[in-house]
Amino acid sequence: MSKLVEDAVRVLRAQPEDVQEVAARAIMDYGAASDDDVQLTDQQVAEVERRIADPNRQFLSLSQVRKGLHRFGI
Question: Which of 40, 50, 62, 71 could form a disulfide with 44 if both were Cys (CB 3.0 to 4.6 A apart)?
Answer without folding.
Answer: 40
